[in-house]
Design brief:
This is Zn(2)-C6 fungal-type domain-containing protein. Residues 1-26 are annotated as: Disordered. The protein is mainly α. The strands form 2 sheets. A two-stranded antiparallel ribbon has the order 1-2. The protein has a two-stranded antiparallel ribbon with strand order 3-4. The chain starts with a helix and ends with a helix. The chain has helices at 2-8, 46-51, 63-68, 82-110, 113-125, 129-142, 150-154, 157-169, 185-203, 209-218, 229-239, 244-253, 257-272, 278-293, 297-314, 316-322, 330-353, 404-424, 432-450, 464-481, 496-518, 527-538, 548-561, 566-582, 617-623, 636-645, and strands at residues 24-27, 30-33, 489-491, 494-495. It is elongated. Helix 8 (157-169) runs antiparallel to helix 12 (244-253), helix 17 (330-353) packs across helix 18 (404-424) and helix 21 packs antiparallel against helix 22. It contains 26 helices and 4 strands. A hairpin with a 2-residue loop joins strand 1 (24-27) and strand 2 (30-33).
Length: 649
């Protein structure tokens, strides 16, 4: 039977071998076929699934559909299932980790035995080894010092500690890259936090925080609309001046981070090629503020003018009106409105330093800032932190008062009106008509102040914002009185001089109180404004012993800020030159604050500071010469240069 079956079965020939191929191979004692298995595909096309055929997943038409001549959906199908997406993400993560581990291995290979041992010790102590690698990479970038081997700087534990502490204690945490390569995540996070803690609260409220941070955290400069590398570097440069941790880093690394951020911002500005954008306007404004802090505002004026020219090109109000009623454009409206009103407030404060009216007129669009609850019918609210939560002793920011910026806009409008009248009435100062207008403006401002909610009053609720608001109000009051003869009677028993000295005392007492409560560990430049406005009044009345104590306090407070802002030392040098030109000696208690200000008299040949001087006859006479254009406002730098040229001490 078996023999008959064997005769019926045909003999099988071996499988054909491909040209140049190998028919079979022996592995683990088994014979494996050389025929390749069918390629596995993620999913079949719709036709093959219905017919339960094998699909080769070719694009745009699979083989089975091509043979049958039917339309295949392979070209348009989405075969990225959740599982496939997860696998791809996992694959990308593993590739990144592999690259990082290779980089870590390469670093260990390059280090000396001692440095390698130190790095291994840190890896053993770290919970996440990649964090150690990241710190080392940032330190390598930050401390590329040609005078010493880079590996020595990389492993400086003091710098690592400074950056890690900055990151841990920052209220806002961001990644430095790809926005800046000047500093690491910790210092950049601290500087960004510092800007929104201090400058955004009153002095420079021009950037929408949420929009900026959302774009920055996306890590995609190409797609970002409200954050840019230029803006980030300009922002960091502006906040380095009062950052104690940044100064510690600079002391150890022997670098000037503020200058590094500034230079990086300038390079990035060149790449903008004059293109008008919201970020460019904001960044240019910050670069001007940096030039003022450095005492080089004369050179920095180009940033101020460029920012406002670009702002006009953006035509913010027209753009706002186009989207005024679009419910999907709320964020865009807030961004545009904050830029317009914030820039108007900032420019008004800046212009007053030069005794000018704001170059930006009052916006004709709604304010973006929240109204004080009392003005909307709500009850009084407690102070809040930077994120709007109730402020406590554990908060990482000073207390804020809801509605303070809305009221600051009111004060800015009154300052604009006062400066407008000063220009219009220049030929009639002190006449009956002029005095009537000024008295009316004083009454309006006082009435506005009396109507402030209790939590907006610095004598009841002393916060940085209420302190700045009070100082701003006094600035407007002084702007109304400054053009008048000091002996002009404004109201029964009060001359222009007496009222100005009264407001100066409030300003100086407020700054002294601020330093006592909040210290000068970190603060905004606007803190100096009160003492600066006051000392420019007091210097003309130093023959009156009643002003000596106030003058001494103002000098001391300004000098305290000189450790952070170089302009403060220039201001004191200017006051010293003014006292010399007026032939009035600086009061003995204040003289100690006018020594060792950083420059000898002979060096004041071309001072780059251009803060305007008050119009007083003796100073004007000194500054008048045949080459000065008529109507030009002279500045502190000019006075210092002339003082330097004189031989009389």
């Amino acid at each position: 039977m078996d023999r008959r079956m064997d005769r019926r079965l045909p003999h099988l020939m071996p499988a054909p071998v491909p040209p140049g191929g190998v028919g079979s191979r022996v592995e683990d004692g088994r014979i494996l076929s050389s025929r390749q298995k069918r390629r596995q595909v993620a999913s079949a096309c719709e036709n093959c699934r219905k017919r339960k055929e094998k699909c080769d997943d070719k694009r745009p038409t699979c083989g089975a559909c091509a043979r049958r001549g039917v339309i295949c959906n392979n070209e348009t199908k989405d075969d990225d299932s959740a599982a496939t997406t997860a696998l791809r993400a996992r694959n990308a993560t593993l590739k990144q980790e592999n690259e990082q581990f290779r980089e870590l291995f390469s670093l260990l290979h390059r280090l000396s035995a001692r440095e390698g041992q130190e790095l291994l010790s840190r890896l053993r102590a770290a919970e996440e080894p990649m964090q150690v690698l990241r710190v080392v990479q940032e330190a390598t970038l930050l401390l590329s010092n040609p005078s010493s081997p880079p590996t020595s700087a990389v492993l400086d534990s003091r710098l690592e500690r400074i950056d890690l502490l900055a990151l841990r204690e920052s209220s806002i945490r961001v990644d430095a890259r790809p926005w800046t390569t000047v500093a690491g995540d910790g210092l950049v996070s601290e500087l960004i936090s510092s800007f929104f803690t201090w400058d955004d609260a009153f002095f420079l409220p021009i950037i929408d925080r949420d929009a900026f941070l959302n774009d920055m955290r996306s890590g995609n400069p190409a797609a970002a609309k409200f954050c840019s590398p230029f803006l980030v570097n300009a922002m960091c440069a502006s906040r380095c001046y009062t950052s104690r941790r940044t100064k510690s880093f600079c002391s150890v690394s022997k670098r000037d981070l503020s200058l590094d951020f500034l230079n990086e911002a300038k390079k990035l500005l060149d790449l903008e090629n004059g293109r008008a954008s919201i970020c460019a306007v904001q960044g240019l404004t910050l670069l001007f503020s940096v030039s003022a802090y450095r005492g080089t505002d004369r050179a920095g004026m180009l940033y101020r003018f460029a920012a406002y020219e670009m702002f006009n090109r953006l035509n913010v109000e027209a753009t706002y009106n186009e989207i005024r009623d679009d419910p999907t454009k709320t964020l865009n409206r807030n961004i545009l409105s904050k830029l317009a009103w914030g820039l108007f407030c900032f420019e008004s404060i800046v212009a007053y330093v030069y005794l000018q009216i704001s170059m930006i007129p009052p916006p004709n669009i709604p304010r973006p800032f929240e109204r004080p609850p009392e003005l909307t019918g709500g009850g009084a609210m407690q102070n809040v932190d930077i994120f709007g939560n109730p402020h406590t002793k554990h908060s990482k920011s000073p207390p804020y008062v809801t509605g303070a910026l809305y009221l600051a806009c009111d004060v800015t409008l009154m300052l604009y009106s006062s400066m407008e009248w000063n220009i219009k009435s220049e030929s009639m100062y002190g006449t009956a008509e002029d005095l009537e207008v000024r008295r009316r403006k004083l009454r309006e401002l006082r009435l506005w102040t009396e109507r402030l909610p209790p939590n907006m009053r610095d004598d009841i609720n002393f916060t940085p914002q209420t302190c700045h608001l009070s100082s701003y109000v006094n600035e407007v009051l002084i702007s109304i009185l400054r053009p008048l003869n000091p002996l002009t009677e404004i109201e029964p028993g009060w001359t222009a001089k007496a009222l100005c000295l009264h407001y100066c005392k409030i300003e100086i007492d407020n700054m002294e109180r601020f330093v006592e409560i909040y210290t000068l560990r970190d603060y905004a430049c606007i803190n100096i404004c009160g003492a600066y406005n006051s000392i420019l009044i007091l210097v003309f009345h130093m023959n009156d012993p009643a002003v000596h104590e106030m003058f001494t306090k103002a000098s001391r407070l300004i000098l305290q800020t000189g450790a952070d802002f170089p302009m403060s030392r220039f201001i004191l040098q200017g006051i010293k030159a003014m006292s010399w030109s007026l032939k009035i000696s600086i009061p003995p208690p204040a003289r100690q604050y006018y020594f060792n200000l950083g420059k000898e008299k002979s060096e004041f040949r071309d001072i780059p500071i251009s803060f305007a001087l008050p119009e007083q006859n003796n100073v004007r006479k000194l500054l008048t010469d045949s080459s000065r254009p008529k109507g030009r406002v002279e500045d502190m730098g000019t006075l210092l240069s002339k003082w330097s040229a004189m031989s009389i001490e």
